[in-house]
Amino acid sequence: MSGTMKSDSLKKIETDRKNIIIEVLNLFGSRKFKEVLPFFAHDCKTHNPYISGSMDSLTDAMITASKDMIGDYESEFSIKHVMVDGDFIAAYTQLLNNKSNHEEGGLRQVHLFRFNEDKIIEYWDITQEVRPDMPNASGAFE
Prior knowledge:
This protein is of the alpha+beta class and 142 residues long. The chain contains two helices and five strands. Strand 2 (76-85) and strand 3 form a beta hairpin. It is globular and about 45 Å long.
């Protein structure tokens, strides 16, 4: 709605959706992957090229990846920004493998969501691995 004032009802819908996404992302960051499923429509489309396309298979892959990548260390997850535009929400996050040693790297992600009413009906996740030998001194979110 660029160039026009948003109605109070649209602002409330966008705020509610933003709060849903923050809750979903915090569940992801807490490794409570299956607990996100009620926020997604049963037939939600996912666009991760490494899974079959269902939220169940995506959350199963997240469980496996978190065990493989993070191991026994206490990780550190942070939501860097959430942007809302009607039915679409974009967010970027960072997951550090070891809360005690940021130099070990982790993941940075961009998440895109599309809503229909109060359910997420489409989800994209784009992930970059962060390693200690990355050449950009500015870092992912510095």
